[in-house]
Design brief:
This protein has about 210 residues and is mostly helical. Helices cover about 80% and strands about 0% of the residues. One of its GO terms (biological process) is negative regulation of DNA-templated transcription.
């Protein structure tokens, strides 16, 4: 019985977070009401308040959930040592989430553009040490002459910019694709192109 209740809670929280991502992306934090999210989630408003007492609490939960998803995408830095495997895996994971959760990326971008007013020091605590560990691995590849000399932080920024572009600027991508979303084939070609350009830029063949 306890496990059943835990599963119901997990599903409801996941449903609310995904609905909130979409509404916050479309209306912004200021323009969003809890009622809007309840409608999107197809749940009574009272259910939202059962799990999240305020809009700010829910907004922060959306941001922290996104950060955890992106940290999961980067587990390849810990799982593998080959720079080609690590970066190819990471780029594909980031691209896949740009396609499957574009609203989340837009919410994150908007928060960062405005100086992380809701995350505050939580961003330092959650992001700084995580990013420095990734930079250290890249720096070790450079020192071992496994890749060309690059600034580790700049390489990470290039990957983030290239992959999240497809989410943050999805409307522009659609306009330039004859007002259509990218097909499966087009998206796969985009993944391969981003991967190829980045790997070749650090002296690796895709």
């Amino acid at each position: 019985m306890a496990n059943h209740k835990i599963e119901i809670r997990r599903r409801n929280v996941e449903k609310i977070l995904l609905a909130a991502e979409k509404v916050f992306a479309e209306k912004g934090h200021g323009g969003t009401a809890m009622g809007d999210i309840a409608v999107e989630a197809e749940l009574p408003r009272s259910n939202l308040h059962y799990y999240f007492s305020t809009k700010d609490e829910l907004y922060r939960a959306v941001l922290l959930d996104l950060l955890e998803v992106w940290k999961q995408d980067a587990l390849c830095f810990e799982m593998y040592d080959d720079p080609r495997v690590v970066l190819s895996t990471y780029i594909r994971a980031k691209m896949n989430h740009s396609r499957s959760r574009p609203h989340g990326s837009k919410v994150w971008a908007n928060e960062i553009i405005h100086g992380a007013p809701m995350l505050g020091t939580t961003l330092d605590d959650s992001l700084y040490s995580w990013a420095k560990m990734k930079e250290a691995k890249i720096r070790q590849w450079v020192e071992d002459k496994r890749i060309l000399a690059v600034e580790p932080s700049a390489l990470l920024y290039m990957i983030w910019a290239s992959t999240q572009h497809y989410a943050d600027f999805s409307h522009q991508v659609g306009v330039l694709n004859d007002h259509r979303a990218l097909s499966e084939l087009q998206y796969e070609r985009a993944v391969q192109t981003v991967t190829s350009v980045i790997l070749r830029g650090i002296g690796l063949e895709p």
